[in-house]
């Protein structure tokens, strides 16, 4: 019997996605368009798949037995639908930010033969996700709830809460608290890694300083800097100039923002663990 693990998700789960993108499911599709669809689903690979990993843990905590073969398949399908939706987000994000590198390779819009056609491909990714979901989970009792949740809050954890038919007012309130905390932490960590992470970790060169992003680092720096440091940040942050970016980095070093993030991380993880305990009490 298969189990919920990332290896099975990347092999058996991805096989389900590949088998879905065929002429049988997309009759009349030109060969070039079919090739494009295959390139899109291949591009969904290579990420950290953190959403799917979290989902596996949530399912395991919701079930009082080992998942059945059908349940594992359903979770894998939902997971790959989420990865397709992640493709939508990062593709759009890379175009807007003019980033050229993603997940250790050229960003989708920079790959041969793609260009600004990536804008349309992002829509295709969303349609693929919903079509893939309908193909395998169209008769599931929670199918409509899943689709509505995806439409309302793209890539939010709530579709998974409906999957087990265990949603109540109490555990939805508890899950809302923990997912909000996790979402803020995830974005803050992304902001931190944009400057202090490696290219291997980020899949691209950091650009938040030059891009004038409202990141965790600049927000916290402005809370703690003195008047002189504030003037330097105001004069140099958001400038598409490497020398200006270096001046900002110097201020971040003076404020020891790396250590500040580690302290924030420790406190946040403790809070998430506390909320997780509350979640287990109301599940």
TrEMBL record:
Q: Which cofactor does it need?
A: Mg(2+)
**Which PANTHER family does the UniProt record give?**
FARNESYL PYROPHOSPHATE SYNTHASE (PTHR11525:SF0), FARNESYL-PYROPHOSPHATE SYNTHETASE (PTHR11525)
Q: What's the family?
A: Belongs to the FPP/GGPP synthase family.
Cite a single GO MF annotation.
Answer: metal ion binding
Q: Which InterPro entries match?
A: FPS1-like, Isoprenoid_synthase_dom_sf, Polyprenyl_synt
Give the UniProt keywords, A-Z: Magnesium, Metal-binding, Transferase
Instruction: Give the highest taxon in the source lineage.
Output: Eukaryota
Q: GO terms for CC?
A: cytoplasm
One Pfam family this sequence matches? polyprenyl_synt
Q: Name one GO biological process term.
A: mycotoxin biosynthetic process
Write the lineage as a comma-separated list: Eukaryota, Fungi, Dikarya, Ascomycota, Pezizomycotina
Q: What is this protein called?
A: Farnesyl diphosphate synthase
